[in-house]
Design brief:
single chain; alpha+beta; 6-stranded mixed β-sheet; 24 helices; globular; DNA-binding
DNA sequence: TAATTCGCTAGACCGA
DNA sequence: TCGGTCTAGCGAA
């Protein structure tokens, strides 16, 4: 038996000789192979009473399953695990299809079953704690001939091209595979060749996948490890030869090139930008129409439903869709972009301007063969692939770390939700501790949980007005630290010890064990400690060695994502480990801590201006920074271990405003730090559904007020804006209001301006749907027309056609009036420049 | 198949 | 035409 090491890329299974076998795609130094582990069977758990273990075992063993093909279970084993005092029996099957058929029948027979819906290859990765994207070590037993069909790793997946369902892929790997066993995770360096590709296609009357020919394709390859082996290529046909462009004879040959490039045996990863929905489906469809094969690594790319989206899965080789990466970063707040097209992302993430070439221009350039236009198109096509690859290169280290934590492939982690990541981690840790995972909730349970929301954070109403010298304190990782300090976990909830109830009760009335660590709290405790060490080391390296260690950064970042999602997961109705009591206790503790801190601050002579969830805004008055530090230290001494109040910063000035309905507005304020940097929170300035004119005017006003202390100048500035507005001089781009179409047009009860604009655009033939970002303008329109009547998508509006009255009354004025009001300026003062006061008015 | 709740504001909608 | 209520979107934490 020989030991081998390799980088693990994929886990799937093949049915060979009537049994399902785990197959892993592994490699090193850009050479890959499939290895097969025959020692691991699909399984589920069935519960039985302590007295009936033998009886149930025999019953299960003797039962004949199957509609057509009859089969028995492979084995039934008693485990040490229990659920509600019942014993879990591990039931193994020969094939995945057997498990799928049997689990239906088991329910009908009245058995309680667990972990019956964990996909086989996922199960394998979790149980073995393997880390795709990292290395593995295994024993090689020998080689075996395989004659198998591939079955997807999840049972619900269906293949289709342009919406039509196809037969299940019957392709297989035929040949020899290494048989292995005793696989274990191993630390090693992330490596591998990645190739990005991007298609340019012809536009027809109506867009549909595969409707028109592919016109051009670009490839960019590079090594994700240390080596740099850059390779670039752009190919077209039936057009002019320009620098950087290779010509072939036909579209068919384009597909040949795609086949050749994607099947370079050195490829470990194929990168696209929205290849999940476009490039693969398109190539697949064109290949079918042209009657040529399109396979990657021996298999047709498989388009599967993943949530509300499509995903394109390849066998072995990892398809990394950089668009999915970007969407994940947007969801977790790492980036905040209005549009997620590759041009905006290039600008936002890398600060690199990328020119957009529109579909019509693409077709035109190709058809005309105009050299200038074509060169522009070649450059555009190439940059698409370059940018997609750059995104993958930049962020894959993060997903490799997530893959290590959750034991999922990069294909999965780059597409998973944070709740899925938390759940994968919990499944893995639960298995290690011999804990059976709770079942996924049934739809009625989800409904019930949803209908019963958890009380959240405490927000203190601010004191409106302009304030000087503000100290902002906040709790470090408040929710995770509460989980850890109070040992909050579904398995420590309301334990039987009276002293735990005495010592560790939440303000909510629930209590948590103080004697044994819970699943949640233990894992989170470990993660938070690791993160602290990693952060420290990252900072040290940066400071002492001048090295920006991206791997260290990615490691702590992955932990941060998981830590921050833990509370949300507990309150997520679809979670296996959903716990209303736990989530509720966390927020109850949090409300308690923040309110206590506010009270302590007031007792120490601070005026508390505001507080939200985990933060505290103190007016310093006569107090010094040292006083704030002393106060923080005092609070920390009284906090349980693991919790910490930190000083976020000191601010020279800040403003809170009154609401329209009276009272001070929460979640909106502006601060200026000691260096003069502004922090604008919640105001229109940070909201994309306000036009740029209103937002920029507001920013300028805040600047003049906070920095210069000059409301007179601010008023003058606003008057200038109003003048331009009334004179019709404001550019279209400053008046665009952006809103996301969150549902299908027909599902709206209330037709707001953006929906009305979308409706009109659809009538003109524009394709819009859920997820479309709408940019609209309120045009002059007819008198007495509603705002919706006057709303039109930007692209249909001429420069200068805008409703000045609307933009004055509903955009610019509302954005600044509340701020100016705090300085004693009325609407009239603003419009006509009446008041001439300086700082004296408010100081 | 989607992490949570709190909060603000606009504009449609609807009945008096 | 007015004012209250509801729908919708987005941001803070």
């Amino acid at each position: 038996m020989a030991k081998e090491k390799a980088l693990l890329l994929d886990a799937t299974y093949f049915d060979t000789n009537g049994e399902s076998r785990i197959s892993l795609f592994v490699g090193k130094e850009n050479e890959y192979q499939w290895i097969c582990d025959k020692t691991f069977r699909p399984y589920l758990y069935v519960l039985t009473g302590k007295e009936e273990i033998q009886k149930t075992t025999t019953e299960l063993k003797n039962f004949t399953f199957g509609d057509f093909e009859k089969f028995n279970v492979l084995s039934v084993t008693e485990t040490k695990m229990q659920v509600n005092g019942k014993i879990a029996l591990k039931v193994e099957f020969k094939r995945v299809t057997h498990l799928v058929q049997a689990r239906k029948l088991l329910s009908e027979l009245g058995f309680e079953k667990y972990e019956y819906d964990v996909p086989y290859s996922k199960r394998y990765l979790l149980d073995k704690r393997l880390q795709p994207g990292n290395w593995v070590e295994f024993d090689v037993l020998g080689e075996e001939e395989i004659k198998g069909e591939v079955i997807e790793t999840t049972s619900k997946e269906k293949t289709f091209t342009s919406g039509e369902e196809e037969e299940e892929n019957a392709a297989g790997i035929v040949g020899k595979t290494k048989l292995i066993q005793n696989i274990t995770p191993l630390d090693g360096e992330f490596e591998g060749r990645a190739i990005a590709f991007d298609l340019e296609t012809k536009v027809g009357k109506k867009f549909a996948i595969g409707a028109e020919p592919i016109l051009m394709v670009s490839f960019v390859a590079d090594d994700l490890g240390q080596k740099h082996t850059k390779y670039e290529k752009v190919i077209s046909y039936n057009t002019t030869k320009v620098p950087g462009l290779e010509l072939v004879d036909s579209e068919k040959e384009i597909i040949d090139e795609i086949n050749t490039e994607l099947n370079n045996p050195k490829n470990g990863y194929i990168v696209t930008y929205n290849g999940d929905n476009f490039d693969f489906a398109y190539t697949k469809d064109r290949a079918r129409k042209l009657k040529v094969d399109f396979k990657v690594n021996g298999f047709e790319p498989k388009i599967v439903r993943k949530g509300m989206d499509n995903a394109t899965r390849l066998q072995g080789i990892q398809h990394i869709d950089s668009f999915q990466i970007i969407k994940f970063l947007q969801r977790t707040g790492a980036i905040n972009a209005v549009k997620l097209d590759i041009e905006s992302v290039s600008e936002k993430v890398f600060g690199v301007y990328k020119e957009k070439v529109f579909p019509k221009e693409i077709t035109e350039a190709w058809e005309s063969g105009d050299k200038k236009q074509l060169e522009r198109l070649v450059d555009y096509n190439l940059k698409d692939s370059q940018t997609a690859l750059r995104i993958a290169k930049e962020f894959l280290p993060l997903f490799v770390e997530i893959s290590k934590l959750t034991s999922q492939t990069l294909y999965e982690t780059t597409r998973n939700s944070t709740s899925q990541m938390v759940e994968d981690l919990l499944m893995k840790e639960a298995h290690l501790r011999e804990i059976i995972a709770p079942n996924k909730p049934k739809e009625n349970q989800v409904q019930e949980r949803t209908a019963n929301p958890i009380k959240g954070a405490f927000v203190k109403e601010p004191i409106a007005g302009l304030h000087e010298a503000i100290a902002v304190l906040d709790f470090a990782s408040l929710y995770p630290s509460i989980i850890i300090s109070h040992n909050i976990s579904p398995d420590t909830l309301n334990c039987s010890h009276p002293e735990c109830k005495e010592k560790n009760s939440s303000p909510d009335g629930t209590w948590f064990c103080t004697k044994e660590k819970g699943l949640f709290s233990e894992i989170l405790g470990r993660l938070i400690k690791q993160r602290l060490i990693l952060k420290k080391e990252y900072k040290r390296k940066k400071k002492e060695e001048g090295i920006d260690d991206k791997i260290l950064f990615a490691k702590q970042w992955a932990l941060k994502i998981i830590l921050n999602s833990a509370y949300g997961y507990l309150g997520y109705p679809r979670a296996r480990w959903y716990s209303r009591e736990c989530a509720s206790a966390i927020t109850a503790f949090a409300r308690g801590y923040i309110q206590e801190t506010i009270a302590k601050a007031e007792n120490s002579g601070f005026k508390v201006l505001y507080g939200d969830t985990d933060s505290n805004f103190l007016q310093m008055g006569n107090k010094t920074k040292k006083d704030v530090e002393d106060f923080t230290e005092k609070v920390n001494k009284e906090l349980p271990e693991g919790m910490e109040l930190e000083i976020d910063g000191f601010y020279k000035r800040g403003i809170f405003v009154t609401k329209k309905e009276g009272g001070a507005a929460k979640k909106r304020y502006a601060l200026m730090d000691e260096k003069g940097n502004l922090k604008i929170v919640g105001f229109e300035y940070v909201r994309r559904d306000w036009c740029l004119l209103a937002r920029e005017t507001q920013k300028k006003v805040i600047e003049l007020v906070l920095k210069e202390g000059n409301p007179t100048e601010a008023a003058k500035f606003v008057q200038g804006v109003i003048k331009e507005l009334k004179e019709g001089k404001v550019a279209k781009k400053d008046l665009v209001i952006m809103t996301l179409l969150q549902r299908d047009i027909k599902d709206y009860d209330s037709i707001g301006p953006h929906v009305a604009a979308a409706e009109k655009a659809i009538k003109r033939g524009k394709e819009l749907g859920v997820g479309s970002m709408l940019s609209f303008i309120v045009t002059k329109g007819k008198e007495k027309a509603s705002i919706s009547d006057k709303a039109e998508l930007e692209e249909y509006v001429e420069e200068g056609n805008y409703d000045a009255e609307y933009y004055l009354e509903n955009q610019v004025l509302p954005a600044v009036i509340k701020i100016m009001a705090e300085l004693g300026y009325s609407r009239e003062d603003l419009l006509h420049g009446g008041k001439q006061t300086g700082l004296s008015a408010w100081s």
